[in-house]
Structure formats: structure tokens, C-alpha cells
Amino acid sequence: MSPKASTEVETVLRLTDITKRFGPLTANDAISFELARGEVIALLGENGAGKTTLMNILFGHYVADEGTVEAFGELLPPGDPRAALDARIGMVHQHFTLADNMTVEENITLGTQGLFSPKLDHTARKRIVDLSTNFGLSVNPRATVASLSVGERQRVEILKALYRDARILILDEPTAVLTPAEADALFRTLKLLVQNGLSIIFISHKLHEVMAVSDRVLVLRAGRLSGERKTAETNRQELAALMVGQEIAPPQVAPPRPGAPLLVFDKVSTARRGTGAFLDRVSLTLTGGEITGLAGVSGNGQAALAAVMSGVEAPSGGTISVGGQTVSDWSPRTALASGIARIPEDRHAVGSIGDMSVTENVIGERYRSERFSKRGLLDWKAARDFAEQLIHDYDVKCPSPDARIRLLSGGNMQKLILGRALDPDPIVILANQPTRGLDVGAVSYVHNRLLAARDRGAAILLISEDLEEILALSDRILVISKGKLSTPSSRGERSVRELGELMAGHAEAASHAA
Ligand SMILES: Nc1ncnc2c1ncn2[C@@H]1O[C@H](COP(=O)(O)OP(=O)(O)OP(=O)(O)O)[C@@H](O)[C@H]1O
Ligand SMILES: [Mg+2]
């Protein structure tokens, strides 16, 4: 063979005819593609299309039934993450995998230090600091991982891969858990990595990110590679259509028909907490037939507000009334009994129990309700029927109601949790980041469900960091900053820029002052 000309594209990774089946389901169907040096590929596809599965095969977590993976011209032995690491492939998972009780530097060097030198040497430390400075991945090496924010944890995951000399970096929905500002910082890091010759595979459901970050887009549909575009030659509409097979229409919003106040917070405060803001005399009225959007940078009190609203935390001051009645003993049970449903922010920590079945998860807190009990015992048939109905209505891709929920793709898990919250026709709905991790089709479906709930008279609080989502759905918008709420504005009243300024903690313009 002749020596390669320097202009020739250098292929760093080659997947050939990868097929993976889970029982009757073909999660990956004869997928082939190549990744070039310095290239960023965005991998798109509906929830359950097979993206994570494919990356897990590439990284050796799963063994493909057919097909091969080659990195830098060498075949990778299947099912061997160690070999993938040695071949300089690094992976940042959809769900992080760090050891919580260890420090950042211990996590980064885990498995690379000799067994008999548990103490970090000077060069290792210096290397971490250098990588962190060079690639804009700021984090305190001595901090324990348990004390870190999600954004910081992700930086540690990336550092860990770089520390091992990764030349190919796989990021599975890295921005699903980030604030918009953190996402921008991540993109700057990715740019620096590419300039240093790394190649990247990036999974995201956010099409504007895909457009901004990638060189090439691959679209998976039901396990098959269904489309490929150069990013410069496509647009968001086309990508959405490639993914779900049709154009996505923006939600149709009927004029609001506001009803009675259903949930009223009067000067509600919460106790000081470690990180994140606490509520400082927050007054808020949720009216039936309206979606109230709560915009804000995460960590400004959203978590405290959501915890109080769902009964997880009792207020330290102020009063809460539901349907005109002041509530005294506030607990998740009373909140639920008063007709407040919640779509939790973190579907893994509070939303679901991984090793329980889909059926067990969808009845969740309602196992004592009349609908699911027969003479004091759980009515399994009613529960299973309900699970089947949700799977059908919400188009959840899952083998059966008996499957452990852990095996569902991220987005499909989210759809079930949504169905669980919206099904009993709650009068008040706390929708906390309801579309995180959902594909564009599913986002549109959820938006329509929330609007339908509003139109039948429910009061909805929509907490979202996605300003586009807030603007599309909300009848009234509030901004939360440092535990305080702005005055409300109605649809279209404040510009994106004004909202942005409030989110950044700037004082309100005089016309909005209370
Ligand atoms: N270990 C497993 N056992 C059985 N089925 C599985 C397993 N892992 C994944 N699946 C199934 O394979 C399909 C593809 O899942 P995958 O996680 O790859 O989807 P995804 O494209 O990453 O979706 P999302 O965007 O929701 O994260 C899903 O139907 C999922 O339920
Ligand atoms: Mg996935």
C-alpha cells in the first residue's frame, strides 16, 4: 500500500454491520459508519431508537450479536470495556458512574495507579490540573464527588476519559442534565478537544445543539441507520422529519379560560439548605385552566419550590391552601390526596425504582388507591391493565409491563412517569422539567397533554430551564432567582431578553415592580 497522503481522511473508528437483539427486539440492525479524526458526529433518534445500545456495544458494555468495531485499524474484542479504554475510547454515560464517596482525583485516576501506590503522586496531580486548565474543565480535585453538582460530575467524567488518553470521546445526552450556560461551556470544551485531534460522538435530542456542535449527523430509526447528513447541508426541520418520519407542528394553544385559584402559596419560606437556594416568602397562585411557567437558572430555588409543592418538604413559614382550604399537615400523601400530581425532575432518583417492573412503577404511590386495590390487596390485573394502557397511549417502547423499568431507554422511562402523573386527571400538576431527554415527537406529545390538562381546568406549574418551552406553553411566566419570585407577566409581555435579565438576577424594571 502506498503511504497515506497527509490530506487523506484518517478513520479512527469503523463500525461494520452491528446488530444487537434483546429477545424479539432488534435494538441495532446492521449499523455501519466511520468516524474521522477531528470529526464530531451527532447521533440522533427517537427514544428507544437504539443510540445508547450502540454506544454500549462500542464501549464493550454489551456484546453485539453480529458485526465488528475497529478503532485505529485494530479490531476491538467484543464486550471488553478495558480493551475499549486501551484503544483510547472514552465514554460519558447517560447516567454517571462515578464513586460518590471518593474524591475527584481518586475517581479520575481509579484503576490507573499501581495497586501498591494508593497515594496520588505529584505527576498525576499535575496532569489533572493541566487537563482541567487546558480544556476548560474546572473542578476542585480534592472535593468528594458526592458534594458536586451534575455539571461538575460531568466534567470529572470527561477528565477521567482524557486522563486515560482518550482519542475518541462518546457523550450520551451530555446536555440533558446541564443548564444552558453549562451546555455552552461544554461545547467550548468539545471544540478545544477537536482542535487537539480528538473525535467525538455526541447524542442529543436538542436539534439546535446538534446544528451548533456537529460536522455530520446520523439518524437512527427503530434500530436502523435511516439517514445521514452533513450538518452544514441540513436544518432542524429536516432532522426532525428524518427522526420521526414527519414534520413536527408547534403546539396549538387555545385561549386560556382561567378558573378559580387552586393552589395558593402565601409567603412560603423553606429552611436553609446546603447547596441551592431556599424559598424566601414566596407567594404564588396557581389558577385552574392556566399554565404558569417558572423560568430560572437551576439552583435558584426551583428544587425547594418543587419539594414544598409535592409535600416532600414542609414550609418553615407561610401557608399553603389547596382549593381554598389551608393545609396543616403537609406530606407527599396529603399533597397527592389533594389532587396534586408531580412529574419529578430526576426520573432515576425519585421517579422510578429500577429493579421493579413497569407495572409496579406506574402504580407507584397509588397502590393504596381504590382503583388498584381489592379487599386491601393490590389488584394486579387492574395495575397491569393500567400499565398496558399507558404503554399504548404514550407510545412507550418496552417489551412488556413486566419488564424491569431499568431496561427502558431514558426517554421511554420519562414517558411512563408522565403518564402516571397525568392519568388520574389531577387538579394541580407540578411539571418539573417534563420533557428532559425526550425526542422531538415525544416533546410535542407531552406539550399537547399538558395543554389538554389545562383546557380541562387543571392548574399547572411548569418548571423548565428551556425558555423555548416556557414561552410556547405558559399563560403566565414567573422568574425565580435566589429563592424569590418575580412578578408574573402574561404571554408575550416580557421579551426573551427581559426574561434573561431577570434570570440572571437583575432587578425588575420599574413597570413590573410590586
Ligand atoms: N438490557 C436490555 N434488555 C432488554 N431491552 C433493552 C436493554 N437495553 C436496551 N433495551 C431496549 O432497546 C431499545 C433501545 O434502547 P436504547 O437505550 O438504546 O435507546 P436510545 O436510543 O438510547 O433512547 P433514549 O433517547 O430514550 O435514551 C429500547 O427499546 C430498550 O428498551
Ligand atoms: Mg439513550
General description of the model:
- Strands 13, 16, 19, 20, 21, 22 and 23 form a seven-stranded mixed beta sheet that branches. This protein has a six-stranded mixed beta sheet with strand order 6-7-8-3-9-10, with helices on both faces.
- It folds into three domains: 11-244, 3-Layer(aba) Sandwich (Rossmann fold); 261-339 and 424-512, Rossmann fold (3-Layer(aba) Sandwich), CATH 3.40.50; 354-416, no CATH class.
- The protein starts with 10 loop residues before the first strand and ends in an 11-residue tail after the last helix.
- The chain has helices at 51-58, 81-86, 104-109, 122-134, 150-163, 180-195, 207-213, 236-244, 302-309, 332-337, 347-351, 358-363, 380-393, 410-422, 440-455, 467-473, 496-503, and strands at 11-22, 25-36, 40-45, 66-71, 74-75, 89-92, 168-172, 199-203, 216-221, 224-230, 261-269, 282-287, 290-295, 317-322, 325-326, 340-343, 373-374, 377-378, 428-432, 459-463, 476-481, 484-485, 489-490.
- The radius of gyration is 24 Å and the shape is globular.
- Helix 14 packs parallel to helix 15.
- It is built from 17 helices and 23 strands.
- Bound molecules: adenosine-5'-triphosphate and magnesium ion.
- The site of adenosine-5'-triphosphate has 19 residues, from strand 2, helix 1 and helix 14.
